[in-house]
Every structure is written in structure tokens, then in C-alpha cells.
Specification:
The complex is a heterodimer. Chain A is mainly alpha-helical. Chain A has a single domain, classed as MetI-like (MetI-like fold). Chain A has 22 helices and no strands. In chain A, α10 runs antiparallel to α13, α13 crosses α14 and α16 runs antiparallel to α18. By secondary structure, chain B is of the alpha/beta class. Helices cover 43% and strands 21% of the residues of chain B. In chain B, strands 1, 2, 3, 4, 5, 6, 7, 8, 9, 10, 11 and 12 form a twelve-stranded mixed sheet that branches. In chain B, α7 crosses α15 and α8 crosses α15. The longest helix of chain B is centred in the last third of the chain and has 20 residues. Chain B is globular and about 65 Å long. Classes of the chains: A mainly alpha, B alpha/beta. Chains A and B meet through α6, α11, α12, α17 and α21 of A and α2, β2, α4, β7 and α9 of B.
Chain lengths: 472, 332
């Protein structure tokens, strides 16, 4: 266990260092004597913080609220045609640049969209008005509900066959089945899912502004963008980014508490291995806090290493991450020579929380079930990974890879800082075409992007498909 | 093996040959360097007469350009920075990174004339409310006052002045016309605003999708639709008070490795070799002499009676206050 723990600590340290590395140079650029504290308590900052919380909270509840029944339905119908296609399609919104998604939503629900066309056709006078909170929620559910559903589904699919059989033997009603078999499984993945969706919505920018209907719909991310671009005040940007980080961290703590208080399944791992693992985690946390510098102080006790990694990187606005690294790169070779590496590293960091969230529940359950047996049989290292771990972790790993791929494919945060004439990505090119009247080109590119995204997702899942095992 | 060595030698020879040429590095925005944009043609034209290599580094827009320069400071690789507008030149000047252009700029055709010693204009245009001719008529609004004060169901998509240059343009336009009353004007305009987008692309995308019959863009936007899409559907309103201007400029850095070469480029920039390309690749008005008349579609564009513009210093001094005023008026 010690080996794995120190490995974990190393990963956390690297992630924390990379994140801190973005902050430090920006702080160096901060305006001397800028009244940052006044700014932090200004009515404007409070107002946008409140709105960020409101829209992200509602979006999360709606997305996950819809995702659970959908995932349940998908779990109950393992055989129907096109199920695989549907599942893959569900990873697609993640890979779409927000602007493309927004235009798609407008096409369906907008002023002249299909829905309003239908309402008019059947002679109804009422119209759907999406600009405002409605539009924001609609778009966020579109982008995040599929992701949430896939995560909940992965939880449901991990229900052991024995439980299903027992439930059938006992003649459980659907309600009882839900209560005793499915809910515990969903509960396991729920905190992670809620947290991820919350963070994605909190950091939403294009959607919030475009569909929000006006500046009363302003989130922290908008203010960060403004501070770093128009006002060029990196100090302010860092303060706002920290505020956003803090929001997400509190959300994490809250959810973590919910998870541990109500769901004994979450803490089972700790009870099964008292001592060594627990203290390893605490050490990791301390190290992380030290590494991440003094910029954030979090209560440590309840923090799971992976969870904090998730909190750190996803709550980190890509534009801040990119700008910080850019300044850092200036000190060395010049940013363009490290551009590909920076883009890859940045996107990897941002996708890490997803991967962790998806693989962690499977990993925990798996470890609980097999650790002792494997230990007693003396299976170690690669052999253990190949024979014992991979058959179970392959599927979640594939899902995680697919989602990470989709996310990085659609990235527009980091590439805009490091991109150049010779180093472009599809979404960036798409944005360029949109910006020079070429909307038809952009639509074509969106299609290519979508196709590419789907085939990558398909490949990732195919490569991680579980080895065929006889059904018990 | 011998072939491999020969190939390697050839490659080295080629590389050193390439090194013998001077390189001129130009930071610009990406619309300029895109393969249908002005950049590639400018590169080809200038390279035939300078015996140098033109390298573009493309950034999302003028604001990003200036920020990049601030981040890089004196260590910047840029010889020329091309594509910031006059709303930013005071801030750009204040960085102390730019050198005087020292180019005789007598043939410039920018309304209001040009006297800046650091920056030279390469194109300019007017902001305008562009409308969908299938839904509205050109005489619906004959002035900014009418547009703001006449109540009606027709909506407009505008850009956010906190994040986009056209958004800032409208803010300054209303300020130029309304002065101290600008806040009231925004409150009156508010019900007409369908939504406020972070950039021009989102706004124009929503507009061409038919979400709103009006969008804040440029008087030259209809020229694109007339020339490239052969349609008269999208036109701009002519406002009696005049239209707010945007002038795009370029300057050379103090750290330019070959100042002589950089100056030659700036002189080329305001000559017909560059200016002829502007109307149909950048969809703006040329800032210097051209050797052929403007495309016919440009004759059909709105020609504002008056050009409105604040000095760069005024914008730099007031932008924050005016943006806050806008926020207060439209957030409620």
C-alpha cells in the first residue's frame, strides 16, 4: 500500500506544482498596490459570486436530476439497438466548443427555433423565451446531463450480479430494488458527479454570456476573462480565480461530508485498512498544501487525495493556467517552442478530475473485494494489473479516456494562448472562420470535429473493452 | 547511405540559405492571417520586394495582441504589431515598447486625418446596426435616438464591452451622442437587447440564424454578403448623428532587430500594394491610396454623415468608469 500511496503523493505534488506555477508568475505581473481586498468585497464581485452559485447550483441539480432516471433506464435496457451509439453520443457535447453547442440549442429552442415553430404551427400563442436563466440552464443540462448520466450508469453497471439475483429471488418491487440495490450504487458515484458538473457550470463562460440575456448574468469566469484581457490586471484575475477555487472546494467539502455521513460504502475502504492508508493520505494532503503554496487553506481531514486533485485543476480557469504558464515559458525557450507540450499538459490537467472521478469508485470496490485475496496469493506488480485490475478497470478507464479525449478536443482555453499560425486546432480554426463571416465553413468544421470526437470515443472504448468472461 | 549524407548536406545548405535571409516577425490577429485573409497575400507581395521572410504570429484579436506584448515586454520577438485599434493605442504607447515609425504618411485617407508619430493606420470602418432586410426596412430607424427611444418588439444582439471591441464601440458611440445622458439611453435600450454576447462571432452567428433582426456590426458587413454570397438581404441603418469609427493600426517595436526593414514594411503597408487587398479580404475601408476603385458593393454601403471618435487618451482614461455605468444601467 505504501508504494501506491507515495505514487499518489507524487502525482498530487506534480499537479499542485503545475497549478501553482500558473499563479506565481501572474502575481509577479500584478499591479503594485492594487486594492485587491476592496475589489474582493465590492458589490460587483459579491453579485457575480452569488449568480455563479445560483446558476451552477441549479444547473447541477437539474443535470444530475435528469441523469439518474436516464442512467437507470439505460441500465435496465442493456440490449436495445443503438444503445452503444447513444452512449457514445452522450460523450459528444463535452467535445463541442461551447459556441457550437449554443448555436445548436438556439436552432432548436431559440426565437425562430423548431420548438417555437411547432408551437406556432399548432396554433399556440405562447412562445419559448430562452434568453435568461432558462437558456443558461437549458444549455448546461445539454452539456452536462449526458456526462452525469454516463457516470451514474457506470455506478449502476458496477452492481454485482449477486445483488441483482438476490433482489429477484426476494421478489423486490421496483421501488424496493431502487432503495436497496440501485440507490447505494448511485450514491457511490453521486458526490463525484455532482461536484464535476458543478465545477463545469461554475466555470461556464460563453454559454452564460450568450444565452444569459445581459450583464446581470455574469459569472466569476467572465470577470476573470475581463481582468486578464481588457483590464490586463493579473492580480485581479488571480484573486477571482482563487475565489472560484474556494467555491468549488467548499462544494467539494460539502459533498464529501454528505457522502461519508450517509453512505457507509464510501468509508468502507478506510475501515478495511485502518492505519497505513489513512495516514498516507493525510501526509499527501499536507504535502499538497505546502506545494500549492499559501494560496489556499483547506481543512484537511476529510480530503481524499484524488478529490482535491479534481478540485484544484477543474476549478482552475484554463485562461489563468495558460497565461501563467505562458509567462513562465517566456523565461526559457520562448512560448512557441513549448506550445504543443503546454497544450497537452494543460488539457491533461483539466481532464484529470474526470478520469479520477470515473475510475475511483470502480477502483475502491475492486480493491475491497480482491486486495486480501491477491495479497495472500502473492500476485504483484504488472501481473496483478494485467490479471486482476485491468479486466475490471478497463471499462471505466475507457470511459475516462473517451471523455478526456472529447474535452481536450474541444479545448479553447489553452490553445488561444499558445496557438500560432503553425499550431492550430480544429475548434480554434472553427472560431476563426466564425469570426470572419464564414459560418458555413464553421458548420462543416463542427461536423468534422463531431465525427472525429465520436470515432476517438469509439476507439478508446473499444480498446478498453473488458475481456470476455463467462457469466457467473 | 551516400544518398542519405547527400540529402543531409542539402538540407544543411538549405537551412543556412534560409538563415541568410532577414526575418520580419509580425504579431497580428488571426482573422488577418487566415488563408482567405489579407495576411498571406501581403506576405507574398512584400517578400518579392524585401528579400526577407515574413513570419506571422496570430492571436485571437487586438486586445490579446496588446496583452501578449505586455506579458513579453522588451523580450518580445515582434518587429511589427499589426491589428490593435485606436481605442488601445494610448495603452500601447504607455508600455514604452513601441518606436516612432518615421514614415512620411501624406497619402492617408482616414477621415479626420492622421498625425500619430508611433502608429500608422492600415484600415478603418464604421460600427453600425446591421439588419435583416426580410424583417425590417432601412427607414425603420433613421437615427441612434430613434433606435434607442422608439419602443418596439424588434430585438438586437450586441457584444459585451467588457470582452469585445464592437461592444466597446457601441458603448463609445452612445457616449459620444448622449454624453451625460448615456446611462438613461442604455436603460431605454435595454428592453430591445435580446442578449449580450462575449464576442462578435456569437452575436453575428445568432443574427444570421434569425434569432434577432438586428446585430451590432460594421457598415461594411453588408459588402461581404453582397460580394461573397451575392445577397442584398443584410443591410445597415444610417444614423443621422453619425457613426462611431474604428481605426486599425500597426507600429514597430523598439526591440525590432532590423528597424530599417520594419520601416520599409510600414511604408509598404500604406501603399497600394497592401491597401488594394483591404476591402475584399479584411472587409474594411483602406487607410491609404489604392490603385483600383473600391468594389462596386462598397458604393451601396451606408456613408455616415459624420465620423464619431474619441481620442485614444480619452478612452484609456474613461473606459473603466463608462463600462461601470453601462453595467449599472443594464444589469437591473
Amino acid at each position: 500500500m505504501t508504494g501506491a500511496a507515495s505514487g499518489g503523493i507524487a502525482v498530487v505534488a506534480v499537479v499542485a506544482a503545475l497549478t501553482a506555477a500558473a499563479f506565481v508568475p501572474l502575481i509577479g505581473h500584478a499591479r503594485a498596490g492594487a486594492p485587491l481586498l476592496d475589489f474582493l468585497t465590492a458589490p460587483y464581485t459579491l453579485r457575480i459570486t452569488r449568480f455563479t452559485l445560483l446558476q451552477a447550483g441549479l444547473s447541477t441539480l437539474l443535470s444530475v436530476g435528469f441523469a439518474i432516471p436516464l442512467a437507470r433506464a439505460l441500465a435496465h435496457q442493456p440490449q436495445f439497438m443503438l444503445r452503444g451509439t447513444l452512449l457514445r453520443l452522450m460523450a459528444l457535447p463535452l467535445g463541442l466548443p461551447a459556441l457550437v453547442g449554443v448555436l445548436g440549442i438556439v436552432e432548436v429552442f431559440g426565437q425562430r427555433g423548431w420548438v417555437n415553430g411547432l408551437l406556432a404551427a399548432i396554433g399556440l400563442d405562447s412562445r419559448l423565451e430562452i434568453y435568461g436563466l432558462t437558456g443558461i440552464l437549458l444549455a448546461h443540462v445539454f452539456f452536462n446531463m449526458p456526462l452525469a448520466a454516463r457516470m451514474v450508469l457506470s455506478g449502476l453497471e458496477a452492481i454485482p450480479y449477486e445483488s441483482e439475483r438476490l433482489s429477484a429471488q426476494l421478489g423486490f418491487t421496483p421501488a424496493q430494488h431502487w432503495r436497496h440495490v440501485e440507490w447505494p450504487a448511485v450514491r457511490q458515484v453521486l458526490p463525484g458527479t455532482l461536484l464535476l458538473v458543478f465545477m463545469l457550470c461554475a466555470a461556464s463562460f460563453t454559454i452564460v454570456l450568450t444565452l444569459g440575456g445581459g450583464p446581470s448574468a455574469t459569472t466569476l469566469e467572465v470577470a476573470i476573462y475581463q481582468a486578464l484581457r481588457f483590464d490586463f490586471d493579473p492580480g485581479q484575475a488571480v484573486v477571482l480565480a482563487l475565489l472560484q477555487l474556494l467555491l468549488c472546494a467548499s462544494c467539494y467539502l460539502l459533498l464529501g461530508r454528505l457522502g461519508t455521513d450517509i453512505d457507509p460504502g464510501m468509508t468502507l475502504g478506510a475501515r478495511a485498512r485502518p492505519g497505513s492508508r489513512g495516514s498516507g493520505r493525510r501526509t499527501g494532503d499536507w504535502l499538497l498544501i505546502a506545494m500549492a503554496g499559501a494560496f489556499i487553506a483547506l481543512p484537511l481531514v476529510a480530503i481524499v487525495i484524488s478529490g482535491l486533485v479534481a478540485g484544484l485543476t477543474l476549478a482552475m480557469p484554463p485562461i489563468v493556467l495558460g497565461a501563467g504558464w505562458f509567462v513562465l515559458a517566456l523565461g526559457f525557450e520562448g512560448p512557441f517552442s513549448i506550445a504543443p507540450a503546454a497544450v497537452v499538459a494543460g488539457n491533461a490537467l483539466l481532464a484529470l478530475p474526470f478520469a479520477v472521478r470515473i475510475i475511483e469508485p470502480a477502483m475502491l470496490g475492486h480493491a475491497q473485494a480482491y486486495d486480501r485475496l491477491v495479497l495472500s496469493l502473492g500476485i504483484k506488480g504488472l501481473t496483478r494489473f494485467r490479471l486482476i485490475d485491468w479486466p475490471v478497470l478497463g471499462r471505466p478507464a475507457g470511459l475516462a479516456a473517451a471523455l478526456a479525449m472529447a474535452m481536450s478536443l474541444g479545448d479553447l482555453g489553452i490553445i488561444t494562448l499558445f496557438g500560432s499560425e503553425d499550431f492550430l486546432t480544429l475548434p480554434y480554426l472553427l472560431l476563426q472562420r466564425m469570426g470572419t463571416y464564414r459560418t458555413t465553413d464553421a458548420a462543416g468544421l463542427a461536423l468534422i470535429l463531431g465525427g472525429l470526437c465520436l470515432s476517438l470515443i469509439w476507439t478508446a472504448e473499444w480498446m478498453a473493452r473488458p475481456a470476455r468472461r463467462s457469466t457467473p | 547511405m551516400r544518398r542519405l549524407i547527400a540529402a543531409a548536406l542539402a538540407l544543411i545548405a538549405l537551412a543556412s540559405f534560409a538563415h541568410a535571409k532577414e526575418t520580419l516577425t509580425i504579431y497580428t490577429y488571426d482573422g488577418f492571417t487566415s488563408d482567405w485573409g489579407t495576411g498571406p497575400k501581403v506576405k507574398a507581395a512584400f517578400e518579392t520586394q524585401c528579400d526577407c521572410t515574413v513570419d506571422f504570429v496570430a492571436l485571437p484579436d487586438g486586445v490579446a495582441l496588446l496583452n501578449r506584448l505586455k506579458l513579453e515586454g522588451a523580450a518580445t520577438k515582434a518587429d511589427i504589431v499589426l491589428g490593435i485599434d485606436t481605442n488601445l493605442t494610448a495603452e500601447a504607447e504607455a508600455t514604452g515598447l513601441f518606436a516612432p515609425h518615421e514614415v512620411t504618411a501624406s497619402g492617408l485617407t482616414v477621415p479626420g486625418g492622421w498625425s500619430d508619430k508611433t502608429f500608422l493606420p492600415f484600415d478603418w470602418g464604421y460600427f453600425a446596426v446591421v439588419f435583416d432586410g426580410d424583417k425590417l426596412k432601412a427607414d425603420q430607424f433613421r437615427s441612434l435616438k430613434e433606435f434607442i427611444e422608439k419602443q418596439g418588439p424588434e430585438k438586437i444582439v450586441i457584444e459585451d464591452p467588457r470582452t469585445a471591441t464592437p461592444g466597446l464601440g457601441l458603448l463609445l458611440w452612445i457616449k459620444a451622442v448622449y454624453g451625460d445622458q448615456a446611462k438613461d439611453a442604455w436603460e431605454k435600450l435595454k428592453p430591445r437587447i435580446l442578449t449580450v454576447t462575449p464576442g462578435w462571432s456569437e452575436a453575428y452567428g445568432l443574427f444570421t440564424k434569425g434569432e434577432a433582426p438586428m446585430v451590432l456590426s460594421y457598415t461594411t458587413s453588408p459588402a461581404y454578403h453582397m460580394i461573397a454570397e451575392n445577397t442584398q438581404r443584410y443591410q445597415a441603418f444610417a444614423f443621422a448623428e453619425g457613426h462611431y469609427m474604428q481605426i486599425e493600426v500597426a507600429g514597430m517595436t523598439k526591440s525590432a532587430r532590423n528597424k530599417e526593414l520594419a520601416r520599409r514594411f510600414l511604408a509598404f503597408m500604406i501603399s497600394p500594394g497592401f491597401q488594394d487587398l483591404v476591402p475584399e479580404t479584411n472587409w474594411m475601408y483602406p487607410a491609404g491610396p489604392i490603385s483600383k476603385p473600391l468594389p462596386a458593393a462598397f458604393d451601396r454601403l451606408v456613408k455616415p454623415a459624420k465620423s464619431l471618435i474619441f481620442s485614444s487618451e480619452e478612452v484609456a482614461r474613461n473606459r473603466k468608469t463608462w463600462t461601470e455605468e453601462w453595467l449599472a444601467a443594464t444589469s437591473r
